[in-house]
Amino acid sequence: MKHAIVTLSESQPAIATILGQGKARIPTGGKIRAGIKVLTKRAAEHSVAQEIYAHGVAGGQSFDDIERAINQALPELKSPLVPKNVPWFTVRPNDFPNPEIASQILNAYGEDRGDGVKRLYRFPVVFPADAWQAVMPHELVAWSANERRFWSEYAPDGRVRYCKCYAPLPMDQHGKRAIRVFGGRKTMLRDQNDGICDPENCREFQSRQCNLSGRFIFFIPGIPSIDAFELHTNSFYAMSRAIDRFETLAFLRGGRISGFLDHRRTPFYLTKKLREVAHIDDTGRTVRVAQWIIELEAPIDVTALLQAPDDDDVSVQANAAAQRLEQGEAGAAPSSQIARAIVATPHERESLCRESDGPCEVESGMRPISKDDQPNAAQARQPAAGDQRCESAPSAAQVVAAAGAFGIDAERYAAYADCHWGPGWLRNANGRRRALDEIERYQNDPDGFVDKIDAELRAHQPRA
Description:
This protein is an alpha+beta fold.
């Protein structure tokens, strides 16, 4: 796989390579922008600037290109465009390696709210990592004309925030030619303030040259792309509110924010809300202004993520079943035998039941799955007709079918699940749900899941 998704949970130690020593990052391949730019009052007085702006917007050009064209035509206008806060997101073909992606996003999630123009007001997202710092990276940064000039970076212990910059390029012995640098330009601590990022005593921050800058990194369901998309924001309020939601959902979901939020494949949503935001003006007074702020929504019943009282009985029963299986009591069929029954034909299933000393404990409502016609993982998530219990928890057949979509046979997956989740996973609704959630996390890396199963089974093999 050319671009691997960075997974911060359950990750294996990285293998050192020449190009593999940098920080792990999630590759991105397209931008959705939070707002627009419009002509300044002075620029709007020039008909040439108006014509260039209107032509550029109609042609889907970036605002940087439009501003550059206005500067070439009217050199006296140094900054002809100014940001404008609007209730929609901007999606332009030029912001994507494949321009068709812009139209795919608008066709799938765009809305016409009465003005005759389809715009992106709200869209679903799925985050590819479980650490919010990885899917919402941010920093204090000051830009020069072409690159970052200064930026903030925390020490490994997370206690000290440094101010970094690029180190001067080394010159050859004659001082006339820069030495080729391998792996990109080197960085160093800034000379001022002993390299400490101290905004209250920073010249660039006080003159508004250095500002908070962040971005959300995500995938959009239904939009095919090997790279993630990104949405930039400079809003302290938007990022702070997003952190609150990330931490809340992670707490309720055992540390997870990646993937879909529940077994019904509910995603996060990004939208905008009009809110009053307080800020300090130049005179030191608090001023409140209305702004459209990026909002991260999680449209799920959070109480469903908590264990209900009735679930306690299920857990007790599952633990008791696990003990019986471990002790080898009569009448208890191992998970591997149940897995064989799941994929068996009705005739084969009767034979398997006869092989068992006790009753065949295959779940009712399971239909046999042909080995030649296994559904893919997405289809496995859908409940079988007439099986209402699947609306709250997947059946064992669905879990095994999802693993089968990766080429993993039922007995092998059942053996792995017994080792990883405990023998009671199959009879516990929460256990089956966790097992299917794990399979879904590996949708973009099926080979990695197969390797994980092989490693776990090897670790549990009896030693000679």
